[in-house]
């Protein structure tokens, strides 16, 4: 008998799930308790310049002669803020009010990053959902003047799941709106793997296929003492399946996605039984080699894979990677675009600039070199 054990759980029925012959009904719903932790979510873009500028709030502190900018953090309701650019300060109404002269007013001091951008770290905000005040920590990164840049959510909810002898770490980062949907991110890590192995990153699913099991997922924030926890309900379900012949050389994991259905194939090759559906390739994690300084990141794939009940479909991706140059001409101007492609035509890129060995090109006229340069970080 296989058993599913959850480190911190509330069970609506029994303490174990029996994975015998396909049941005609759903098994007992189990709830994985995710508790507040530091985390790093994707960037949330904002731009309050020019035509998007926020008008003055109903009451503001006396800031005559100061350069200021206004904005809103996208909590529910939005959190108003004022940047005192002259004094490198940010004033924030965490209670969502627009009177900056009464009530609590949080003040944060900026840090200069590179002479162009500044950041405000450990900014505390919350969203209201019924009686709950759901807390978040964010960093605000903006240009030195005006108010445009990116927010990074730096908090999330995390818990551990033991499934068929393997331990998994679930971490969910919400986009500040106090509800969990496909705009939020799930980071999933196999705890048996070395710390250097990267975490799976995908939209938060309603259906999750993991380690041979298919779960119907639901989510709810709850008050637990002084904390707000996130309950992730997991109900194992039986769904139509097909066979997927996977060739993923050099990969430690592949993520397939159909809307909010996520199929996570972790370090597997061969013929696998997976839920039927028409999937996009959402991610492919390349293995880290000892001589690699940086690992290329998955950047997209145009092909889809259709898994039909009772049929076998092939999917090839991953290594070897190929350097491809696409050249287009506009009169006497040549445009060169560099692409790093996988075995299935999927794209990879090195995130950020500053690679020690960026891809180079040279242009020759006969034996004479007339131009050379390096491609950008993407």
Structure report:
This protein is mostly beta strands and about 375 residues long. The protein folds into 3 domains: about 1-40 and about 155-180 and about 185-240, no CATH class; about 45-155, no CATH class; about 320-375, no CATH class. Helices cover about 0% and strands about 55% of the residues. Strands 1, 2, 3, 13, 14, 15, 16, 17, 18, 19, 21, 22, 24 and 26 form a 14-stranded mixed β-sheet that branches. A hairpin with a 2-residue loop joins β10 and β11 (about 130-145). The relative contact order is 0.11.
Question: Could you give the topology of this structure?
Answer:
Elements: E1 4-6, E2 9-11, E3 30-38, E4 43-47, E5 68-73, E6 79-84, E7 89-92, E8 106-109, E9 111-112, E10 117-129, E11 132-143, E12 148-153, E13 155-163, E14 166-173, E15 185-190, E16 200-203, E17 207-210, E18 213-224, E19 227-236, E20 241-249, E21 251-258, E22 261-265, E23 270-275, E24 277-286, E25 297-300, E26 304-307, E27 312-318, E28 322-330, E29 333-341, E30 347-349, E31 360-365, E32 368-374
Parallel strand pairs: 17-22, 20-27
Antiparallel strand pairs: 1-13, 2-3, 3-13, 3-19, 4-12, 5-6, 6-7, 7-8, 9-10, 10-11, 11-12, 13-14, 14-15, 15-16, 17-18, 18-19, 20-23, 21-22, 21-24, 24-26, 25-30, 28-29, 29-30, 31-32
Q: Helical segment tally? A: 0
- N-to-C terminal Cα separation, in Å? 49 Å
Oligomer: single chain
Helix content range: under 10%
Task: Name the overall outline.
Answer: flat
Estimated share of beta-strand residues: over 45%
| Radius of gyration, taken over Cα atoms and rounded to an integer in Å | 25 Å
Give the overall average pLDDT.
87
The total number of structural domains is: 3
Structural class: mainly beta
For the largest beta-sheet, the strand count, sense and barrel status come to: 14 strands, mixed
Can you count the beta strands? 32
Outline the low-pLDDT stretches. Answer: 1-25
């Amino acid at each position: 008998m296989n058993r599913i054990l959850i480190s911190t759980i509330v069970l609506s029925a029994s303490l174990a799930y029996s994975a015998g012959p396909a049941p005609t009904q759903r098994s007992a719903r189990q709830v994985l308790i995710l508790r507040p932790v530091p985390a790093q979510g994707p960037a949330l873009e904002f731009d309050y310049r020019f035509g998007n500028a926020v008008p003055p709030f109903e009451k503001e502190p006396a800031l005559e002669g100061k350069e200021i900018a206004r904005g809103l953090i996208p909590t529910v309701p939005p959190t108003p803020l004022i940047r005192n650019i002259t004094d490198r300060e940010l004033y924030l109404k965490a209670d969502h009010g627009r009177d900056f002269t009464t009530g609590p007013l949080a003040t944060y001091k900026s840090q200069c990053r590179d002479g162009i951008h500044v950041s405000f770290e450990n900014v505390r905000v919350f969203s209201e959902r019924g009686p709950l005040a759901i807390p978040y920590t964010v960093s605000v990164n903006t240009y030195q003047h005006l108010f445009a840049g990116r927010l990074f959510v730096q908090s999330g909810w995390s818990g551990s799941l033991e499934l068929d002898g393997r331990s998994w770490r679930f971490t969910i980062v919400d986009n500040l709106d106090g509800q969990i949907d496909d705009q939020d991110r799930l980071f999933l890590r196999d705890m048996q793997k070395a710390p250097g192995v990267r975490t799976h990153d995908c939209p938060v699913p309603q259906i999750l296929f993991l380690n041979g099991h298919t779960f119907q997922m639901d989510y709810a924030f709850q008050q637990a003492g002084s904390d707000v926890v996130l309950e992730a309900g997991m109900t194992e379900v039986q769904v139509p399946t097909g066979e997927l012949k996977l060739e993923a050389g050099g990969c430690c994991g592949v993520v397939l996605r159909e809307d909010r259905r996520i199929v996570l194939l972790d370090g597997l090759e061969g013929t696998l039984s997976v839920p039927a559906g028409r999937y996009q390739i959402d991610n492919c994690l390349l293995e880290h080699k000892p001589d690699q300084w940086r690992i290329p990141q998955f950047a997209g794939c145009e092909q889809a894979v259709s898994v039909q009940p009772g049929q076998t479909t092939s999917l090839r991706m991953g290594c070897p990677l190929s350097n491809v140059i696409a050249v287009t001409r506009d009169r006497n101007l040549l445009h060169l675009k560099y692409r790093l492609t996988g075995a299935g035509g999927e794209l990879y890129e090195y995130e950020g600039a500053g690679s020690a060995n960026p891809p180079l090109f040279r242009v020759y006229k006969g034996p004479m070199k007339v131009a050379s340069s390096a491609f950008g970080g993407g």
